Amino acid sequence: MRTYLIRRFLLIIPTFIGITLITFFVLQLAPGNPVYIMLQQHGGAIAADAATQEIIEQTRAQFGLDRPIWQQYISWLGDLMRLDFGTSFRDGRPVIDKIMERLPVTLELSLISIFLTYLISVPIGVYSATHQRTWGDTVTTVTLFILYSMPSFWAAMLLIFFFGGGQFLNWFPVHGIQSIGAEGLPWHRWLIDHIWHLVLPVFCLTYTGLAVLSRYARAGMVDVIRQDYIRTARAYGFSEKVVVFKYALRNSLIPIITLAATLLPALISGSVIIERIFSIPGMGRLAFEAVLTRDYPVIMGILAISAVLTLIGLIISDILYAVADPRIRFE
Length: 331
Fold this sequence. Notes:
Distance between the termini: 8 Å
CATH architecture of the largest domain: Orthogonal Bundle
CATH superfamily of the largest domain: MetI-like
Strand content: under 5%
Structural class: mainly alpha
CATH topology of the largest domain: MetI-like fold
Largest sheet: none
């Protein structure tokens, strides 16, 4: 196992380089000039005179945009090896500072969503698999397909309309992650206020993954409970609960574990719209603003972190394979 983990960690290096290389070159093909956008933000319209063009060329040289693309990538990768993500084109702040300000918020939303997704989806999948062709299975299947077909931004707007002070109820706040002045509240009231702000965005980040994982859990369970060793366990007189949860469930977790590797990066990327709608200062909102302003260092920093999370998630999934099914051997 140790040799396998060493090989996988070493494989992260060329994989990460390949991901960032493709992303960096594709990013250069996006329309819009970051220098023009920068100057427009600070000085309004750009004239076509020689003085303005000189300013543009100086700005390009200042940020290294006058060099060939491959040189820009090598320079960025070298800085990244020193954990230097560069400086933002938009405000000149270090990219790592901007990301570290937003990362805890997005990780909190994502980890809570992942926890709730698995906590709810696995029991639903087990129930559907053990109650096939019943009314409960039918209602569960239809409900999950409806949830899966609902775009997250549309669901967010409906929740705001019905429960966030729209035309009906005003149960939940829809801006930020805490109320104004919440810092001065006692810790228990601050915690309640914080949780109350997270209810709607966490729901929007959870329900799609919940629908997908529930179907995978059901399919895995249906396949396992038809195996001969499950019939043998029942023939030995074990209770249905022992058969399902001790023998069947553990062996049906492989598809669920596979999806876990990409769930966190998917939630981070999917939080772009949700954080924008609910005015949450997270990584998704930062990425959205960086794309609009062609802030390449910020975009690449966020993509680099997402790539690392994905690769680490794949390694964790491989380890969990052997935990869930001892028959799997790394060799």
